[in-house]
Write a structure and sequence with these properties.
Helix content of chain B: 25-40%
Structural class of chain A: alpha/beta
Largest sheet of chain A: 9 strands, mixed
Shape of chain A: globular
Number of domains of chain B: 3
CATH class of the largest domain in chain B: Alpha Beta
Strand order of the largest sheet of chain B: 15-12-14-13-17-18-16
Structural class of chain B: alpha+beta
Oligomer: heterodimer
Distance between the termini of chain A: 66 Å
Number of helices of chain A: 6
Number of helices of chain B: 19
Helix content of chain A: 25-40%
CATH architecture of the largest domain in chain B: 2-Layer Sandwich
Number of strands of chain A: 12
Distance between the termini of chain B: 29 Å
Number of strands of chain B: 18
Strand content of chain A: 25-35%
Largest sheet of chain B: 7 strands, antiparallel
Order of helices and strands of chain A: EEEHEHEHEHEEEEEHEH
Amino acid sequence: MKIMVAVKRVVDYAVKIRVKPDKSGVETQNVKMSMNPFCEIALEEALRIKEAGLAKEVVAVSMGLANCVDTLRTSLAMGADRGIHVEAARELIPLTVAKILKKLVGVENPGLLILGKQAIDDDCNQTGQMIAGLLGWPQGTFASKVVLDKEKQVVTVDREVDGGLETLCLDLPAVITTDLRLNQPRYATLPNIMKAKSKPIKKYTPEELNVEIKSDLEVVQVTEPPKRKAGVILSSVDELIDKLRNEAHVI
Amino acid sequence: MEKLRATSNLRRSLKSLLNRRLSSGSDFTHFNQKRSFQTSFNWIRDYKSVGEVNAVQYRYFSSVSTLVQRNPSFSTLNSDDISYFKGLLGEKNVIQDEDRLETVNTDWMHKYKGSSKLLLQPRSTEEVSQILRYCNSRCLAVVPQAGNTGLVGGSVPVFDEVIVNVGSMNNIISFDKVSGILVCEAGCILENLISFLDNQGFVMPLDLGAKGSCQIGGNVSTNAGGLRLVRYGSLHGNVLGLEAVLANGDVLDMLGTLRKDNTGYDLKHLFIGSEGSLGIVTKVSILTPPKLSSVNLAFLACKDYSSCQKLLVEAKRKLGEILSAIEFLDDQAMVLVLHHLDGVRNPLPTSMHNFYVLIETIGSDDSFDREKLEAFLLSSMEGGLISDGVLAQDINQLSSFWRIREGVPEALMKAGAVYKYDLSLPVEKMYNLVNDMRVRLGNLAKVVGYGHLGDGNLHLNISAPQYDDAILEQIEPYVYEWTYKHRGSISAEHGLGLMKANKIYYSKTPETVQIMASIKTLLDPNGILNPYKVLPHSINP
């Protein structure tokens, strides 16, 4: 069985985000970029399933500009067997990503599609759900535990939901999106980094896959949240009452 | 019983030092030599006759160097002094509360404890100046204190010295975005300066594990080294100017912000590394390098020390200008860290290796740096220098790898008693000392070696469940003599403080020390600034 994992190149989670002066977006020049943490977890889960002997191959997919290849190289260094890079000139919205993934699923025929639950740059949390809808596959989102039963061709997923944990049993092929507590991703070891250099990365364009890149959404403005105002130290209870009444209007 | 044993240690070590010096002949003027040691010997005889007195402060772990008597020429605090300080600084900044005094009287390692009754927190250079002028006139001893993260007992009182803590002077005065010159007060915490500079696109030229607590005034006064010395050099090169207050209250304004200024003797260098014994640093002007975007960190395993050494040579050659840090730790250090620290993960879990090396690169072009680093790592691996390794893929992984190296001192503290030594040695010989100590100590204690491979700086730590004289006997003076034989330094970056004040002769000649004493007398005639530290007790007033 093949497992396909979608990974996204995003601004590193530990970087302090700055909004561009023209408010059109977030500063990404000269800023450290890395693999989306949830995608790392997805990849790690795929690798563990393969190491357990339940899958033959792990294919990592990324979409975007040429520098996506860095993220694919990291995936290969962690242990993925092959990479696929879909070149796109600009940011893709989740629906477009889902449409492209559908075409790739048609080419590769994986038994399992694992994604991170959301990307930390847009926080959309949509791609996994959309691709499951487009493919008509069952979905186990916010997975905190994944157990694959190869014989019965089902996967049991524990989901983290508001009320607690929900356990679902999905027929394969299925879509899983991963949550934080699923696993701790491995480090890229030197021997694997060296091996990764010779692993293939296949390039596609959206045209080849017959997917039209059009965005139904337009980013109008990006602003920082209002800065928290400094507190004021008051000198007496009277002053407090005065402020509560006349400034905050709460009494 | 222990006191007498410690005395005989003292006599034995001084005797061996004396014999060696005399027999080696040529360098030393025998007359001066004999005289200074004569004084020490008299002191020992006097000590024996003095016997049990409140004047002798006994330390927890009975190091030879810590047998000290309170200098009777220093006054004791009285209520007039307190009133004066309260009038000068305000009630809030004059602290006599026992709980607060407890923390400032004890050093970070909980090895040294003073009995000061007064903590002062000045908010400006003028206040520092008034404090010192007054203390000088009253002959009250003073301990300048910043972050209190020092490791040689230099930041806490020995007896009842008044503690002057600069922590309230934490303003950033100015920052020039073009030249990168930062001017700030001595009480600024290093980590806060790093965050401030981060917003401006610059970095501090020094970085150490204590950054969350240490203050720049203390860093400068101790000439702190840290993790990036191999890239940015020492504080002597990066500090462009400083403002210090002398013992008599005079403010010495040397707060230049010029890259080049050859006008007269460059006095600021005296204060850098003087550990607060020549003046209190109140403001610092420091050159900060621009923040480069590409940081890469490799955590590597080597099978023996000679591989580490060859790796260092290769790294300097192949990585060249992008190399920013190269550190090592041995398997003992790794075991301690994994055992005692929370949330630490072994990057190379498949097997325990003998040595771990961290190599960091900082440059301006990520793909170029990565290529260079990967090529270097590949060739080192093929050449058998590295047996395994991982490369950090994001900032989170980078911090986790650094946590391992930076967390060793903390892990050692949690493991029990630590005998800590900081030595500069020729890189090829560095680890031989660790092996020798292992043989000497056998089962008595665990010997841990780690440090700044790039600077030839070994942090030798001996860890035991409790402090024990039997262990100390095996360590001192052997470690110091070993270092002396290899022309190393008995204190690479930690300074002398109280711990090594009497050991200075292992690394400096008596003539040099004599001149240091003269300078001390010139700048602090009453000897009120950080007494009993840095210089040997035999010549320290």
